[in-house]
Every structure is written in C-alpha cells, then in structure tokens.
Description:
Elements: H1 5-9, H2 21-31, H3 37-49, H4 63-98, H5 103-117, H6 120-133, H7 154-191, H8 194-201, H9 206-243, H10 249-258, H11 262-295
Helix pairs in contact: 4-5, 4-7, 4-9, 5-7, 6-7, 6-9, 7-9, 8-9, 9-10, 9-11, 10-11
Protein name: Peptide ABC transporter, permease protein
Family: Belongs to the binding-protein-dependent transport system permease family.
GO cellular component, one term: plasma membrane
Amino acid sequence: xxxxxxxxxxxxxxxxxxxxxxxxxxxxxxxxxxxxxxxxxxxxxxxxxxxxxxxxxxxxxxxxxxxxxxxxxxxxxxxxxxxxxxxxxxxxxxxxxxxxxxxxxxxxxxxxxxxxxxxxxxxxxxxxxxxxxxxxxxxxxxxxxxxxxxxxxxxxxxxxxxxxxxxxxxxxxxxxxxxxxxxxxxxxxxxxxxxxxxxxxxxxxxxxxxxxxxxxxxxxxxxxxxxxxxxxxxxxxxxxxxxxxxxxxxxxxxxxxxxxxxxxxxxxxxxxxxxxxxxxxxxxxxxxxxxxxxxx
Length: 296
C-alpha cells in the first residue's frame, strides 16, 4: 500500500472522494510537503514552539484541537479505572499480606497472576462478548448514543457514563494485578518490622495497624506505581478504545495510521511524550518530598 497520504486517500476502494493529480499537488503545496525535508523540519520545529502542530490531512481540522478533544474522553476512563484499580489493589494486597502463607493469600496471588497474563485485547473482547450475549444492560460501542441531544443535563451525563463503563472496567482489570503485587510486597516488608509486633502487643486492631502504621510507610512504591500506570494506560487504551469504538486518543491513533495522516500522528506522539515526561517529573518530585518529610 502506498505511503503517500493523498495517493492513499484518492485510491480506489476507499470510502472517501477521489482526488485528481492537480488536487494532490495543491494539497501538498498547502501542507508544505513539496518543500525539501530540511525546510519541512524547520517549519515543524517552529510550529511546535508557537503551538501550531498543523492541520489534519484527513479530518481537515487543527491537530492540537483534534487531539485535546479526544484526550478528554481518554482521560476520563483512565482516571476512573486508575482510582478503582488502585483502591481495590491496595485493599486486596494489604489483606493478602496480612494473611501471608494462608489459603486465602495463595488463592488471591494465583488469581492475580492469571489475570496479569491475559492480553489486553483478549480481556476487552471477553468483556465485550459477555455484555453482548449475556447482559445487554450497557452500550458496547461509542462514546454517546447516536443523535442524542447534546446538552448539560443529567440524562446526557448518564449516557456518557454508561458508555464509559465497559472501557473503564477493562482497564481496571488490566491494572489491578500491578497494584495488588506492589501493595502486597510493600505491606509485607512493613508487617515484618518490630513496630507491628509492638502494636499487636498493645491489642490494636488489624485494620488500625495496617492503615495507621503500615500504609504510610509503604506509600512510596504504591504512589510510584500509580504515576507510572498513567503512562502505561495510554498503551492499553490503543487496543481497548478500538475494541469498544470509544472516541478517545487510542482510536484517533488508529484512524491516523489507517489514513496515513502523518501530521496528526506526529502531534499525538508529541503531546503524549510531553505528558509522560511531565508525569515522570511529578513522580520524582513527589518521591523527594516524601523522603524529606521522613528525614524530618
């Protein structure tokens, strides 16, 4: 398949209108693709510093506007799934660590190992088929109901939430084992320390010991995993959003690749890279702040 985006868009067998040779040359001049590569590169760098990432070849819209309009959808399911998976992972990991070497710990640990080995596309398709065949109570595709009236109302908000449940549920299952393993490992290290024996000798409750004494000392690796999970979530959304046809950044990447929209792809990767580097910097500053407080 030819790599030229305009030749691809004007080729036979597509669902878009064909372009003539004159139209292709006109578009190349408009997007600056007829210039030497070094000139195109300098223009692109100048555009980055001025906030202009160009226009999408296929969508006919500003790249930066298109990216942020889709990023809102992706951010919603990522934040929701991270909160749910981190809370349940922390709870199950702490419970498993407190009951280490018991039957319940073995069951939980083996179950999380199995879940962690299931590929993301298989998890997404299993959930999709289950709600298509067994439970038809939630929408299985799209971000909103077609032709719904877009307005700030409870019915519209509820419709958005219902469409986001299945993608969020899939991402939650994908990240739950990571939070479980990190929480279990961090809690095991704290439970084996002397202050826990002292707290037990004072007849303090198990939940009080875990939440009041163990968790504050084990929070560093858990928070580090939380921030790193934001980065890895973008990889998972590429598959999950395409399975559920969810209008987020993952589906936008797929569309940009399919339609050879290079300007859009460059803009997406640039924005995601900046976002990931910012999260890494935030995580490093958070870790240093916690360490300084411990020293005090």
